[in-house]
C-alpha cells in the first residue's frame, strides 16, 4: 500500500497537477503536454507483456525494488529539465518504465497470488492506496508548485519515492506457497470446495489458463475492450482534470485540492466495492459504475455555479472504485499462475487507448478552447464500455487438469483451489 500510494499519487494523480505548470513553463500547447502522458502509456503497452511474463517467472519483489529506484531517479532528472524534449524523454524512458514495472503490474500480481476467495476485497484494500496517495500527494504537489515551481515539486517526489518505496519492497514475499502457507490464510490442510466459492464467481473447479488458452476465449477480448475504454477515458480525464476545473472557473490550487478530495472519497468506495465484488457479479457492478460515471460527465458539462460539484465527485468516485473488480475479474476468469502475463498482454492492447485519448483531448482544447466535445466523447465511450461489461460472461468451462498435472509452483508447494 505504501508503494501504491506513492506511485498513484505521483504518476496518476500527480501528472494532472504538473499539466498546466509544464505548459506555461515550457511554452507548449495542451496537445504537446498531453503527448508526454500519451507516449508514456504507449511505452507501457510494449513494456506490459514483457514485464508481466518476467514477474510470473522471477517474482514481483525484484521489479518493485527496481521500478521504485528507476522512477525515483526519473523524477530527480525531471527536476533538471529545461526543454520539452528532455521532459518527454525522461518521462517516457525513465519514469514510465519504472512505474509500469514496479507499481503497475507487480503489486496486483502479488495480491492475486495471495488471495482467492477474498481476492476482490484484498485488491480493493491494496489499490485504495492509489487514492490515498492522490488524496495526500496531489494537494501537496499543488502547494509545492504554487510555493516554488514544478521542478522543486518533481525533485521532492523523487526523494520521497527513493526513501520510502525501495525499503518497503524488501519485505515483500512472492506467494503464500513460498512461505509454506496457503492463499487467503487457509491452513495447509484446507481443501476448498464448491461451497467455499464466493457468490458471483464460478465454481467450476481448478482453473488455470495459459496466455495461449486465454486469448482463445471471447472473455479475454471483451475484458480487454471494456477495460481499454474505461482506462482511456479515466486516464485522459485525470490528466486534464485540473485544466477542466480551471475551464469551469476554478483556481489551479483549488482544483488540485478537489482532485485530492476525489481521491479521498474513492477510498471507502473501493473498500465497499471490494466487499460487494466478492459476493455479487463483478462485471455487472463495473457496468453500473460506468453508467454513473457517464452521467457525472454530463453533470460537469451542464452544471453551473457550484451545486453540481459534489454529485459529480460522488458519481465519478464510483468509477474510480471499480479497478479492483476489474483486475480481480481477470484472476477469477484465468487463475493465479499466469495472471501477470495475461494482464500484461491485455496492457499491450488497452495501452493504445490510454495513449490516444489524452492527446486527443489536448488537440480538441487547442482548437476549440473548450472541453465540451471532450466530455461528450467520454460519455459515449463509457456507455459502450458499460455495455461490454454488462454482457460479459466467464470463459467456457473446460477441463485443463492435464495442463497442471504434476505442476509444482516455482517458489512454493503445490496449490489447488476452486474459483
Description:
The chain has 419 residues and is mainly alpha-helical. The chain has one domain: Up-down Bundle (Growth Hormone, Chain: A). 74% of the residues lie in helices and 0% in strands. The chain has 17 helices and no strands. α1 packs antiparallel against α5, α5 runs antiparallel to α6 and α6 runs antiparallel to α11. The longest helix is centred in the first third of the chain and has 31 residues. It is globular and about 60 Å long. The C terminus is likely disordered.
List the keywords.
419 residues, Growth Hormone, Chain: A, globular
In short:
This protein is mainly alpha-helical and 419 residues long.
Secondary-structure content class: mainly alpha
Q: What's the alpha carbon Rg, rounded to whole Å? A: 21 Å
Could you spell the SSE succession in H and E letters? HHHHHHHHHHHHHHHHH
Mean pLDDT: 79
Query: What would you give as the CATH superfamily?
Result: MFS general substrate transporter like domains
Shape, per Cα inertia axes:
globular
- Main sheet overview: none
The number of helices is: 17
Helix proportion range: over 70%
Which oligomeric state applies? single chain
Report the sheet-strand fraction.
under 5%
- Say how many strands there are: 0
Do you know the CATH topology? Growth Hormone, Chain: A
Which parts are unreliable, with pLDDT below 50 for 5 consecutive residues or more? Answer: 190-206, 399-419
Task: State the name of the first-level CATH class.
Answer: Mainly Alpha
Number of domains: 1
Amino acid at each position: 500500500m505504501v508503494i501504491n500510494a506513492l506511485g498513484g499519487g505521483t504518476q496518476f494523480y500527480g501528472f494532472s497537477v504538473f499539466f498546466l505548470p509544464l505548459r506555461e513553463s515550457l511554452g507548449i500547447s495542451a496537445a504537446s503536454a498531453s503527448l508526454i502522458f500519451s507516449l508514456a502509456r504507449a511505452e507501457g503497452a510494449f513494456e506490459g507483456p514483457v514485464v508481466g511474463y518476467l514477474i510470473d517467472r522471477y517474482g514481483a519483489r525484484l521489479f518493485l525494488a527496481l521500478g521504485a529506484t528507476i522512477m525515483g531517479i526519473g523524477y530527480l532528472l525531471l527536476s533538471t529539465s529545461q526543454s520539452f524534449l528532455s521532459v518527454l524523454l525522461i518521462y517516457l524512458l525513465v519514469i514510465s518504465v519504472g512505474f509500469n514495472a514496479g507499481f503497475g503490474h507487480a503489486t496486483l500480481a502479488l495480491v492475486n497470488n495471495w488471495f482467492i476467495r477474498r481476492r476482490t476485497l484484498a485488491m480493493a484494500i491494496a489499490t485504495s492506496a492509489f487514492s490515498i496517495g492522490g488524496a495526500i500527494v496531489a494537494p501537496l504537489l499543488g502547494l509545492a508548485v504554487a510555493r516554488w515551481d514544478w521542478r522543486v515539486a518533481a525533485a521532492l517526489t523523487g526523494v520521497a519515492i527513493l526513501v520510502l518505496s525501495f525499503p518497503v519492497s524488501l519485505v515483500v514475499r512472492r506467494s503464500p506457497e513460498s512461505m509454506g502457507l496457503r492463499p487467503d490464510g487457509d491452513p495447509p490442510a484446507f481443501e476448498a470446495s464448491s461451497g467455499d466459492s464466493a457468490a458471483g464467481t464460478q465454481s467450476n473447479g481448478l482453473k488455470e489458463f495459459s496466455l495461449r488458452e486465454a486469448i482463445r476465449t471471447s472473455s479475454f477480448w471483451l475484458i480487454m475492450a471494456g477495460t481499454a475504454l474505461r482506462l482511456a477515458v479515466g486516464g485522459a480525464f485525470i490528466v486534464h482534470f485540473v485544466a477542466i476545473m480551471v475551464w469551469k472557473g476554478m483556481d489551479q490550487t483549488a482544483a488540485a485540492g478537489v482532485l485530492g478530495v476525489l481521491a479521498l472519497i474513492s477510498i471507502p468506495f473501493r473498500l465497499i466495492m471490494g466487499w460487494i465484488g466478492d459476493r455479487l457479479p463483478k462485471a455487472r457492478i463495473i457496468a453500473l459504475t460506468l453508467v454513473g460515471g457517464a452521467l457525472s460527465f454530463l453533470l460537469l458539462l451542464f452544471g453551473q455555479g457550484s451545486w453540481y460539484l459534489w454529485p459529480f465527485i460522488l458519481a465519478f468516485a464510483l468509477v474510480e472504485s471499480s479497478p479492483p473488480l476489474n483486475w480481480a475479474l481477470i484472476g477469477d476468469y484465468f487463475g493465479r499462475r499466469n495472471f501477470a502475463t495475461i494482464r500484461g498482454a491485455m496492457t499491450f492492447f488497452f495501452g493504445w487507448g490510454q495513449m490516444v485519448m489524452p492527446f486527443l483531448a489536448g488537440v480538441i482544447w487547442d482548437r476549440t478552447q473548450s472541453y465540451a466535445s471532450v466530455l461528450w466523447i467520454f460519455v459515449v465511450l463509457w456507455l459502450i464500455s458499460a455495455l461490454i461489461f454488462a454482457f460479459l460472461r466467464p470463459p467456457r468451462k473446460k477441463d485443463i487438469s492435464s495442463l497442471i498435472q504434476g505442476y509444482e509452483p516455482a517458489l512454493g508447494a503445490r496449490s489447488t483451489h476452486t474459483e
